[in-house]
Amino acid sequence: LPPAEAEALVRALQGTELRDAGGQGWLRQHEYVTKLNMHAILSASAGQEQLLTELLVTYAKIPVLIGELICVEIWKYKIFPVLCRLEDFKPRSTFPIYVVLHHEASIINLLETVFFYKEICESAEDSILDLIDYCHRKLTLLAARSTNGQTAVLVPPQELQKQAETMEFEISLKALSVLRFITDQVESLPLSALTQMLNTHNLPCLLVELVERCPWSRREAGKLKKFENGLWHVVPPEDQVKMTKFDGQVWIALLNLLLSPECQRKYHFDGFNRSQLLKLRAFLTDVLIDQLPNLVEMQRFLSHLAVTEPAPPKKDLVLEQVPVIWDHILKKNAGKWEAIAKHQVKRVFSPTEEELKLQAHRWAQTYSLDLMEALTPEKPRCRVCGVEAAKRCSRCRNEWYCTR
């Protein structure tokens, strides 16, 4: 995007009401977020994302994006189930529903790209508490997925079921990255944010659970598969001990939360927490430490923890802040879920043919194939043999092949 257009899109970002989800104004907002998301990815790959970061900080838009994230999450779990139970809910197209579900993915992807920077984290201000809450919910979903093979998500119309499950999984992985970037800034976070991560949600123990369960890795027909770059890949035997990006995010978050002096002062190393953390010793192999040398410090810390009794956390008198966005939306709309769903049946999910064509045309321009290919981290591979492919299926435009 040209700098002037990027600035205009950032300035246009604003919070929307729950009842307006999927409406025309909301769809324009989603279009802005999508364009900024793609711009952020391309800029980051070229090392030129500083402009967007400055714009988001200057115009204080990070709290707005976090508010949108929470709003669409509440819509998924409060409005959509009611919507599906209504007798007159017979959408002409699943397109508007899919866009609402995709909005969450676009926002968390944008936040993942920009939260690498300290000034972005600081500009979130009090909304960082809501973002930490959000990430905790997503990491809990990840841990649950590893036990039953799927993510616990709402049940949309049948044709969206698989897409919704895949999207929820990828969103949860993005939330893991965002949380790791937040832990990079533990020294500059508000005290309430640190208390929330360590004591309210006990994130160290949740991260241990993810190390144990490793939901981005699975076995199928005797072959090990790992999830990377949006796809499940078969891992050859020589690469099976190689650390994935998600393994790295979990270990770095643990390093940040356990080795920081401030965190050690506030965290309660009681019997349960100690036993959970000491499980990490079995995973700290020489091969893993060679890939992430900082884990030597973790190894020393755990060895010390095993033979000593840490002092109980110092009890400070602190006025603790609580997340406000989630509570505000719930209180504002309490008892109105069915009314909102009925409103959206009439105004959002029953578009005319003309409205569908117009919106489809706008999204075709936003999601152009050339641009989407530029965002792909690796070249497409043949659906049959797996080698690099240059020919796309002319019918579905999704699958690739190496020959005709």
UniProtKB/TrEMBL annotation:
Record-linked Gene3D superfamilies: 6.10.140.2220
Top-rank taxon, per record: Eukaryota
Any Gene Ontology CC annotation: cytoplasm
Biological process according to GO: inner dynein arm assembly; motile cilium assembly; outer dynein arm assembly
SUPFAM superfamilies per UniProt: HIT/MYND zinc finger-like
InterPro entries xref list: ZMYND10 (IPR052298)
Protein name according to UniProt: ZMY10 protein
Originating species: Steatornis caripensis (Oilbird)
